[in-house]
UniProtKB/TrEMBL annotation:
Keywords: Metal-binding. One of its GO terms (cellular component) is cytoplasm. NCBIfam families: YbgI_SA1388. Homohexamer. This is GTP cyclohydrolase 1 type 2 homolog. Coiled coil: none annotated. A divalent metal cation binds at residues 66-67, 105, 329, 333. InterPro entries: DUF34/NIF3, DUF34/NIF3_bac, DUF34/NIF3_sf, N-reg_PII/ATP_PRibTrfase_C. GO terms for molecular function: metal ion binding. Belongs to the GTP cyclohydrolase I type 2/NIF3 family.
Length: 366
């Protein structure tokens, strides 16, 4: 099977679109060309010098990492730090580097879903669903063509609400139009006012898919000019957002749960607040640095909140109402390459994908 970088990145971006990454992020193709023919692919949490060296040894010319090697702008490339040295080494060896970071964090079946599986949590929900990422598309269509046009919109990514797909609303009415002399009407005659039995159709669409959905609608629609409106709405998107929350199948004694947590994520240590709960049932969690979601976890009455990178004073914010368990940034996201591997192997059979054997955790425990 011959693949180009763009074949792989297009698949990943269809699952976790770049448009859903956070504003500070730098997901996407960081080094290399989309037209590069891929030999083999190396998957890693981070891309550092040792990761590039590993790629060279196994003959991989594409590295897919969770964390971007470049966050801010590079003004020089002279090898004075590990970021510049990593980029230089990749360019010299014609190795592309791709990052799939907060867009994979925000994906419903992404990083946090992987954590849920390893904790034994069924049917987790997004802890902080995103607002202002949806629009309502309203368009008008001849009755006989409404099913075809609506289906095109569904296939392009519209009409999803939580666990439901192909959601829409229709109402019937009459549409009127007068074709001009340069028009090409699908029905009626130039210069004669036409009446058509039409449907008004309403569908929710994600903003990042707006252009492709509008294109799909216009392609399937019989009219030369398609009457449509887009309304920004403040509803949350239940399929996109930060962190997750869910229940264990059976409550666990708090000590037993912490032992389970430490084993599942191979933690060197767990930093935690006072164990004010005797049992753990409802668990909130966020891969990476997730202290910003503590209040969300408290408001949804989680027994424990699991994440990484809590600062000293932030532990006081537990206010004896929840247990904070900081397992470490690397530890919480270490299985992300496994998630990416599963997504790729499902779609590209008989192609060589490798999980990195380099431990990129910069933190050691004594």
């Amino acid at each position: 099977m011959e693949l180009k970088v763009k074949d792989i990145t297009s698949l990943l971006e269809g699952i976790a679109p770049l448009g859903s990454q956070e504003s500070y992020d730098n997901s996407g193709l960081i080094v290399g060309n989309h037209e590069l023919k891929v030999t083999e692919v190396l998957l890693s949490l981070d891309c550092i010098e040792e990761t590039v060296e590993e790629a060279i040894k196994i003959g991989a010319n594409l590295i897919i990492a969770h964390h971007p090697i470049v966050f801010g702008g590079l003004k020089q490339l002279n090898g004075k730090n590990y970021v510049e040295r990593t980029v230089i080494k990749a360019i010299k060896n014609d190795i592309a580097i791709y990052a799939i970071h907060t867009n994979l964090d925000n994906y419903k079946f992404g990083v946090n879903y992987e954590i849920a599986k390893r904790l034994g949590i069924s049917n987790p929900k997004i802890l902080a669903p995103k607002k202002n990422v949806l629009k309502k598309l309203v368009f008008f269509c001849p009755e006989n063509d409404s099913a075809k046009v609506t289906q095109a919109i569904f296939e392009a990514g519209g009409g999803n609400i939580g666990e439901y797909s192909e959601c829409s609303f229709e109402s019937s009415g009459s549409g009127y139009f007068l074709p001009g002399e340069n028009s090409k009407p699908s029905s009626g005659e130039i210069g004669t006012r036409e009446k058509a039995n039409e449907k008004r159709i309403e569908v929710l669409i994600p903003i990042y898919k707006e252009s492709q959905i509008i294109k799909a609608m216009k392609t399937a629609h019989p009219y030369e000019e398609v009457a449509h409106d887009l309304y920004p709405i403040s509803n949350v998107n239940q399929d996109e957002g930060s962190g997750m929350i869910g229940d264990l199948d059976k409550p666990m004694e708090v000590g037993a749960f912490l032992s389970h947590l430490k084993s599942a994520f191979n933690c060197g240590i767990i930093r935690h607040t006072e164990l004010i709960k005797k049992e753990i049932k409802t668990v909130a969690f966020c891969g990476g640095a997730g202290s910003f979601l503590l209040n969300k976890a408290k408001s949804q009455q989680a027994d424990i909140y699991i994440t990484g990178d809590f600062k000293y004073h932030e532990f006081f914010d537990a206010e004896k109402s929840i247990i904070i368990a900081d397992i470490g940034h690397f530890e919480s996201e270490q299985y992300t390459p496994n998630l990416i591997l599963a997504l790729l192997q499902k779609n590209f059979i008989n192609f060589a994908f490798h999980l990195s054997k380099v431990n990129t955790n910069p933190i050691n425990y004594f």
